[in-house]
Amino acid sequence: MKKIALVVILGFSVAFALSSCSKNYDGPSESTIKSKIIGKWKSTYANGIEELTNEREIRSFYEDGTSTSSSTKFNDWLSKTYENFSVKDNIITIQRLIDNNIVEQTVSDIDDDSYSISRFRYLQHPEFTSKRTEVFKKIHVDYTDSIVGLWEGVDIEGDTTYGSIDHRWEYRADSTYTYYVMENGEWIPSENPFNEYNVDGDWLVSRWIQEEGGEMNYEWWDIERCDRYEMIWNGLRKREDGTRFNTKFIMRRVR
């Protein structure tokens, strides 16, 4: 009986030791992250405050270990940029292929609808490493194809940043677009030497140069809806005095 009791005790001790070694960190398990991270996600909150639309980051994770990202953070234009990712314990390591930039995200929580980051570590740029928290929400739509076509402004609510409703946008599948203005009752295409856009999920960012040698302009929107008839944009922005405001833009499809 003593030998049996000793075997049982040793068995529990080994199981406890293995359990302790397998998860000695605070966060969801590696298997949980791997099973739930697949999909497209958009950053929504940073340090408990809702992110401005221009600060969004879109990340897509695929079952084959590849990923893509879109953002304009750190003055980078990332348009569905290809990456590889891996998960170890509760850390997601993401390696960008174009420049080998590597970032580590420490996951503090994850479920079917959102995941939270408690720490970012940038291997090539340790000065950017921080313990800021960030929340990513899962995106269940992708308007990359739906936006292609010609759209005309119908209504706008809130403060404007560029232009008004009296404009047209013609989006092409090659991520370029033409901007039209109304002059003397006719739609006239702008003479911008550079117009580029990126739609990733429900997030849209455009950039353009109005004249050769001019500065690059940017504008960001969250797409509320985009279908065969109508497109609705929403933007959360900040004024120079720090106050925030929302703008809604409604367009109709011309073709």
Give a verbal description of the structure.
The protein has 255 residues and is mainly beta. Helices cover 11% and strands 51% of the residues. It has 2 helices and 18 strands. It has helices at residues 2-22, 30-36, and strands at 39-46, 49-50, 58-61, 66-71, 78-88, 91-96, 102-110, 114-122, 134-139, 149-157, 167-171, 177-183, 186-189, 194-200, 203-209, 217-226, 230-238, 244-253. Strands 13-12-11-10-18-17-16-15-14 form a 9-stranded antiparallel sheet, with no helix packed on it. It has an 8-stranded antiparallel beta barrel with strand order 1-3-4-5-6-7-8-9. The protein is elongated, with a radius of gyration of 23 Å. The N and C termini lie far apart (84 Å). Mean pLDDT is 90; it is low at 1-21.
Helix-strand layout with pairing:
Elements lengths: L1 H21 L7 H7 L2 E8 L2 E2 L7 E4 L4 E6 L6 E11 L2 E6 L5 E9 L3 E9 L11 E6 L9 E9 L9 E5 L5 E7 L2 E4 L4 E7 L2 E7 L7 E10 L3 E9 L5 E10 L2
